[in-house]
Each structure stands twice: as C-alpha cells, then as structure tokens.
Predict the structure.
Amino acid sequence: MSKLPLVEDFYTLQGEGFHAGQAVWFIRLGGCDAGCAWCDAKFTWDAGRFHLVEAEEIAARTSAARAVVVTGGEPLRYPLGPLTDELHARGKEVYLETAGTYPLSGSFDWICLSPKRRRPPLDEIWARADELKVIVAELDDLAWAEQCAARVATDCLLYLQPEWGRMNDITPAIVEYIKANPRWRISLQIHKFMDIP
C-alpha cells in the first residue's frame, strides 16, 4: 500500500524531544486507537476523514527540508516502507514518532517512542527506540516512565514531557524528579510557547 491517509504536512521547527529546535518537515498521518484523554491531535483519530495520498507525492512535497518527521495519529498503522524509501531517495533524514502499538515498518534514522499506558508498545519496538518520551500528566506517570526505561536500550535517551494542560502543576515535580534521577531530561513543547505548528 503506497497510499497513506495524509492529515497535513508542513515545514516548521521540531518542538519536542532530542531534535527540538531543528527545522523539519512534518508528515502527519490519520488514525489512532490509543484514545489518550490529553491528546493534542484528536482530530487525527478517524483515518477515514482524510484523503489517501501516494507516498511519492507526499515525499515530493518535502523538498525544502533536510529532515522529515513521520507522526500521527499512529503512523505505524500503515506500511511505511514506500514512504521512507522515497524520502531517503531524496536525501532526507527520516524520523518516526510512534506509540509503538503496531509492527515497525519502513527505515528510520531516528525513532522516538512515546508509549501510552492505555495501549503499551509491542515488545519489538523497545530495543529500536533512540529516544523514549513519556508524557507526564499525573505523578504516578513517573513510575510508568521508569517501567518503560527498563525496557529500552541503555543508550536510548530518556525524556519526561509535562502534559500541556497540566504543565504548570506537574513541571515542578518533573524538575525535582530529574534532579534526583539525572539520566532523564525534560522535553517541553516549545512550538506551543512559540505559537507555531
């Protein structure tokens, strides 16, 4: 299947995690069944709302960028090989943002795994993650983060990200947690502070 439900694609700055501040082309695909109450992309959940677009056409639109982020929704719901092949053929670095709930497909230069408690990742994805980004909305999410960190490779970068709607309430606890557990870093959604997509 070389057609994908394209929600939107645009050139911007990465706002989160390891690549924060880098110019990237975002490719956002439709469809997600994790159902996180705090999700800031609920408009992507119903894949049937979006037109199917050929992978080659999607890749061709990324000419302005050196790096491309494939995100969603949950992008691994679809075979991503045709898209990542097209992007690599155009000389792009290709990054994936996923909850890891579907089998890995495609070829990526960086994988950001953002696991969800309601629907944990498949076993196969943990060792492939370059970056683990856990959203923290409640204090007990810190224990969940540690459970996740125990499953990734030792060189995987570890990030705690305050849920945007609770950022003022939860950030002080995250700061103290990272000070006590310095293998973790904080990820802030800087694109929201900057009011850019």
Summary: The beta strands are 3-13, 23-29, 52-54, 67-71, 93-98, 110-113, 131-136, 157-162, 184-186. The longest strand covers residues 3-13. The radius of gyration is 16 Å. The mean pLDDT is 95.
